[in-house]
Amino acid sequence: MTESTAPSDGVRPWPVLRAFSGWRLADLGPDLAAGLTLAAIAIPGQMATARLGGFPPLLGFTVFIAGTLGFAIFGSSRLLSAGADSTITPIFAGSLALLATTGSSDYFGLAALLALMTGALLVAGGIFRMGWVANLLSIPVMTGFLAGISVHIAVSQLPSLLGLTVVPSETIPRLIAAVGDLGHANWTAFALGAGAIAVTFATEKIDGRIPGALIGVVGATVATASLGLQSRGVAVIGAVSGGPPMPSMPNVDFAELVRLLPLALIIAAVMMVQTAATTRAFPDGADAPDINRDFIGVGAGSLLAGLFGGFPVDASPPSTGAVSGAGGRSQLAALTAAVAVGALLVFGGGLLAHVPTAALAGILFFLAQRIVRVDVIRSVLRQSVGEFVLILATIAGIVALPIELGVGLGILLSLLHG
Predict the structure, then answer these.
(1) What separation in angstroms does the CA of 347 have from each of 7, 31, 43, 344?
(2) Which residues, 6 or more positions from 6, have their beta carbon under 8 angstroms from its beta carbon?
(3) Is the CB of residue 315 less than 8 Å from the CB of residue 70?
(4) How much is the pLDDT for 4?
(5) 315 DSSP 8-state letter
(6) Positive or negative CA dihedral for 165, 168, 170, 172?
(7) What does the pLDDT read at residue 5?
(8) DSSP of 112-128
(9) CA-CA distance, 271 to 55, in Å (whole number)?
(10) Least confident segment among 209-218, 291-300, 333-342
(11) CB 3.0–4.6 Å: which of 187, 210, 304, 406 could bond 398 by disulfide?
(12) Which helix (H) or strand (E) holds 82?
């Protein structure tokens, strides 16, 4: 598929703030409404995704703000939302855990360095018009890849949902350990997590614009605080420090750069695929999609996240869909959400101390099922048994192998399939 790499109206290739071109005062109301809708989705989602990667929940807010600012300035799509993403986070988190203890200062430093590396790769990919990389993963392999990531997310969050302490990090051993330890599950924590899942599902069925995830998390938090559920063993986020983060460069060691390069290439490839897919799926009705410029926007967001001690960001199809469905007209919608999230980051630390980790695990369970393309799997099964086997092989690789090796296998299978 040939992608447009420049708008048809002769605009210069790399102006900033292109996503605001043609904006009118009449767009202010729709953008503000869409921004508040996005904030209601981003607040629980970014916290949950940060925890998925082994980071403090509030770091997800920093990453969301960085991704939003970078894309709003340098991106092209009026609707695309960038931030912490549950697709790439488990990939790099599993790899970083092999190099440093999860949650340690070394782990955070490697994550920030990885954000800078992937950001630089995406910016370079946009400048050198590498939109063709978006077709690196074939449809069967991409479908299997997303399904495998979904399984990984669900299994990784199962102990938190059940109130268990499970040590294994790999998917299958972790599942076996969780099942074997069911006798020690905290069913109060499970009820909170299951309630968050149920509320999110129910509100989506009623009206996708209802912030079910936020309602579920707030309800679980109020129940935990008012009923004193911590005394019954329900784990909570605990005291969090607010205040704006300060920019700084992570310590760069040449040996670490070399060790992180293969992972950075894999993450950058997945980011390119997802960015292109998001831009195509939600056209903004203006110029033809400019995939290369959107690479630069997402890359700039990742660079900003790295400078503020965060981790790689990615385009988010669900968040972008929320902006589109709420009638957003420009990146002002995403910036409105970033302002709301920033206010909570600076002033709302105390409000988040009683958020139960089981509720955030429930939100990730919901997000995990959202990325499985069931319709595509059924369609492939009807049309080609061979391609269906390719989906199953990719899922097996993601689930059974260390996740970064599974992703690498998926890319190899895609190239062979092509």
Answers:
(1) 41, 24, 14, 5
(2) 13, 290
(3) no
(4) 46
(5) E
(6) negative
(7) 45
(8) HHHHHHHHHHHHHHHHT
(9) 20
(10) 209-218
(11) 406
(12) strand 82-83
